[in-house]
Each structure stands twice: as structure tokens, then as C-alpha cells.
User: Fold this.
Amino acid sequence: MNITGLSYKFIMFSPTIDQIIDADIPFTGDNLEITENFRFSNDISVKHFKLTNETIGIFRSLIEKYKITEWIGKTSSDPVIYNDEHTHVITSLTLKFDDGTSSEITFREGTEDIYKKASDEFRKAFFTAASNEALISEEKKYPALKEARLIKEEHGPVTAIETHHFSSGMMYNSNVTTKQKISKIPGKDGTVLVELYRKAGNLPEQTDSKEVESDIFAKIQEISDKENIPGWHYVQRDPSIPVDRSMMPMDYSASSSLTIIYDDSLLTGCPGIRRTIGETACEMGGSEVDKAICELIRECVTKSGAHIEVSNVNPYIAAAYNAGEPVPQPMPMNGFMGMGMMQGFANPAPAPDVSTEGSTLNSDGTWDCKCGTKGLTGKFCSECGYQRPTA
Assistant:
């Protein structure tokens, strides 16, 4: 069999981010180009580079130098587990033959000193060939959900799932971050750890955690395999398509995401690759899948009993409450993806409506708050959060 080309893969990863390059390098044909698919979260592109016979010769010589064809069929050694905060790089290649078959080489099929040298030389050869000087064209990609479902990535089992919600407003301590994380516990099959986190403005962080028996990961794994959840990570809006923002509030914003964490230890050595379902994917048709996963999370958190009491009351309002005056109701938790599924976070009982008695409107359009702050122009007091009085 003759080698007609190869595919080269470059993966750079850490516990929080990863970058993937898949490149096709033909050895035969009239139109010789390197086609590179680049994926880095929301930066996705396809690049084409000039491919010369000299470059093809370099790859062929490396295949011969390290006798790569003799590695085919050998059992690869286990990857090194990178369980730290650093960034690591691994590479692999797939040889293509004239009978239509192909064989993947991870570079771990050889002895340790040989595969590291081979991996480094193939990497140097690739990035020398795929340089800016050889660039022919570059096309940015903004895959919709339908297209993202077709992006295939091999991953290990699901080991954790995490929701994140952030809201920002103009009231005192109204910038709120909430997180829920459910993780497998090593050595405890069928038992998971539920962790809750909340941080509101300048108030202290709030946390709680509980262990609970749950089959949530078997169910999420089934959904992930069926729906190809890792591909959802790359869903984006095309920035050239205008978005109607006329009805969006100017004094409040919120964002939510759901992240599934895969253990790729046996594939790349990384025990925590993160793939996220964002609001854009839900808006493009993924809301039902999102709801199904969120319901599993809600059930697990409820069963665990993990709980955080939510209070947005600042010291001034607390003093007013103790004096028997009406206080504003804390900002409600809108929940994840607008579903109200932040089960472990509970608001206090509703308080009476805000009273504006004691605040005054000024002739120049400003107003003075009952707390003593003067010359205000917004809807709420920047110091205590009380609302502007009506005329």
C-alpha cells in the first residue's frame, strides 16, 4: 500500500480551555493544499495553505525515519495524566493509503524517548508548513446548532456537570454569580458530590456541599452520546446578522451556561475537558435538551439537601427593616436559562413593597433619597437601592 497523505491533529489543553487543530495534508493530486480546521471555543476557522513537494518530502522522510508504518497495530502506552493547572500539548496523525484505508498513530506506540522525538519533529514540520507566509485563505465559521451537531470529537465519560448564572443590575449588591456543580466521587460508584456557590456584590461568599446517591451521570451520558453535546460548545451567532436589541433592558443583564466535563485521561491525559451549552444553542433549537439536563440537576440538588439562603439586603435596608419600615423584596433568581431551576438557592419570604416616603423630587429633574443621598438621576438610589419617587 502507498501512503497518499495524512491527517495531523494538534491539541493544546488546560483544565479551563483547549485548542484543537485538525489538518489534512495530501501527498498526491493536482491542487496541493493543507486544509486546517481550527477550533478554540468561539473562534472557529478553516485555513488553506500552500503545499509544496518539498514539504511533502519532509513528511515522507519523517515517516521513514521513525518507521511509522511499523507502529500500526501496536498497543499504545497509557498517556501521562495532566492533573494540574498548566497547559499541555499532544499530537497524533492518521496515515491514509491508496486502498482507502487509514491508521491512526498517537506516537505512544513507540518507546517513550522515540515517540516524544517523533511527535516534536512532526509538530515542527506542520507549523513550518502552515505558516502565515503560506496562507492562501481563511474563512471564519459561525456554526448554528444543526452544523455544530456534526462536529465529532472523541471524549471519555462524563464526570461532572456545572451550571453558571450571572446577573448584573444597578441596585446595591445586585451583581450576583451563582454556580452549581455535581461531580463523581472517585471510589464511590453511584455517589455524587453536590456543590453550591453564590456571591452577591460585596457580601460574603456563600457555599454548601452534600454527598448523595444518584444515577444522574448515566442519564447525562446517554443524552450526551445521543445529542453529540460536545459539538454544541461551538455554536455561535454570525456577527454579520443584526440582532434586535430594542427590547433589551439597559439597567439589567444576565447570562447562563451549562458545562459538561469529560474525563479524557485515557485519550489525551486530560481528566477534565469542558464542553458548554450556552444560551445561543438553546435559542437555536436546543432548549428541550437543556431542559431535560436541568431537570436532572434540579432533582439531584433537591435530593441532596444542599441549600443556600439568598439575601440581597444591605446594611441600610436591614436597619430600616429592624425599625419597622417597609423594605424592598430581594431580586428574584431567574434561574438557569430562564427556567427557575436553581433549586438549592432560596429567597427569603417576600417583603412589603418599597415605600418612597421621605424621598423628594427636585425641580431640576434629580431627586433626593430618604437615606440622605442627594442629586440622584437614576431609577434607584446608588447607595441604598430605594426607588425614585413618582411625581
